Amino acid sequence: MSNSVIQLLVLLGIAIFLILRLKNVLGTRDGFEKPPVEAKPQGGKRQRPEFEVIEGGPDRDITDHVEEGSESAKALAAMKMAEPSFNVGEFLSGARQAYEMIFIAFERGDISDVRDFLDPEVAAAFDEVIAERQAQGLKIESEIVGVRDVELYRATFDQATRRGEITVRFLAELTTVVRNAEREVVEGSPTEIKRQRDTWTFAREMGADDPNWQLVATGA
């Protein structure tokens, strides 16, 4: 074998050895790997991605009814944390129905069907007024033509007791007639529609098994 061939074989062996060593150090591309970092564009400006995903944002179920960032908004958000199924819009719809039911029951002098929706102190106050009317021989006939506005006025939440309170303002159109024991009209008219504003506060322990809110305060 000539010297040139021997030298060629020696160089080939050295080359193979270096290739194997380099492979052991760098490894191989196998499976999932992070893509290479792209070089920044000239001028240092960041290229905008074709699509951007924005997470979070205001809860429209809250901000549609109270100012974003207000104490009422924070209270409503805390109620949702305590009870994820709570929905402000659904609450206001239920409050409207409760207002109509409770108002008519009170005016007609029989709150037995709505007593479960009343705080005991409110129920006692209603009972007292109804008893006074009966003692005077007065009877009230009221009909709600429609509830024109339902506004969430204020909301509070007690973290310790998990008690949420929501104050709602109602604007109702109704007819009211007051009759004496002889069935004579002493006040109002069955055909005259009047507007009445009421401010009611409902309360409930958020997360409790009982889904019913109770009327805890009334005002004009």
Note down, in words, how this protein is organized.
This protein has 220 residues and is of the alpha+beta class. The chain has a single domain (60-219), classed as Nuclear Transport Factor 2, Chain: A (Roll), CATH 3.10.450.240. It has 5 helices and 4 strands, in the order H-H-H-H-H-E-E-E-E. A hairpin with an 8-residue loop joins strand 3 (185-205) and strand 4. The chain is elongated.
Brief sketch in words of this structure:
The chain is of the alpha+beta class and 220 residues long. Helix content is 35%, strand content 29%.
Main sheet, how many strands, which sense, barrel?
4 strands, antiparallel
What proportion of the residues is helical, as a percent range? 25-40%
Task: Look at the structure and give the mean pLDDT.
Answer: 82
CATH domain class: Alpha Beta
Q: Judging from the principal axes of the Cα atoms, what is the shape?
A: elongated
Strand composition percent: 25-35%
Query: What is the CA-CA span between the terminal residues?
Result: 116 Å
Structural class call reads alpha+beta
Number of domains: 1
Can you write the helix and strand succession as a string? Answer: HHHHHEEEE
Supply the CATH architecture.
Answer: Roll
The strand line-up of the biggest sheet is 1-2-3-4
- Using only C-alpha atoms, the radius of gyration works out to 37 Å
CATH fold-level assignment: Nuclear Transport Factor 2, Chain: A
Number of helices: 5
Poorly predicted runs: 8-12, 14-41, 44-55
How many distinct beta strands? Answer: 4
